[in-house]
Design a protein that fits this description.
By secondary structure, the protein is α/β, with parallel strands linked by helices. It has 2 domains: 122 residues, Aspartate Aminotransferase, domain 2, CATH 3.40.640; 81 residues, no CATH class. The chain has 6 helices and 9 strands.
Amino acid sequence: MMKFDLARDALRYLIKKYEIKEIYIPYYLCNVIRHAIFAERAKLKFYHIDDNFFPLGDFFRNSYILYPNYFGICDNNVEILEKMYSNLIVDNVHAYYSQPKGLASFNSARKFVPEKNGAYLWFRGEKNYFEPNLIRRKRFDNYHKKFFKTNLLRINISPQTIPFCYPYLAPSIEEADKIAFDLINKGLKIYRYWNNLPETYNEYKFYSRLVPIPLD
């Protein structure tokens, strides 16, 4: 395990370490990741994801693929992808407590604990020994009991999973905006992830209708 200031620094280290010339990343992703890859002059190739955040399309087995553990609820997807692709790199920024998978994975302490910076880079075979935040998981379960009947995401996580937030996919933009407005009025900070995408993309629904309810 290695420590960096920011998760993007860990990714840049990996690109240099493995001399990555080309890497697949999803369209639905924070721009800082793209900038980090550009900075190392690696070629970007994009892929779409389905309604369960799973990559659409096939890659060569030895392709370098960056896969985000979206909102900390995609451990099952990571396990499947790890078996399919030998050079999988897992972005666990939303999954601080998840076990490392793939060729390498990185997470970010500052999104889960009171630490200004702190990103951890893990390699294949290493273990994450951070003590899980059970209060965060309890809050997640409480939101799921309240929203699961109307949440269009089909969330299926293990009892050990500690998510980043409770991602609620509303049936309409108007409903998403209303829920976000109500939560903000209750003092919660609501962010939309990430930048706008074309309405023809499947991922547009996540940008426009997904409300990430914080668990802090």
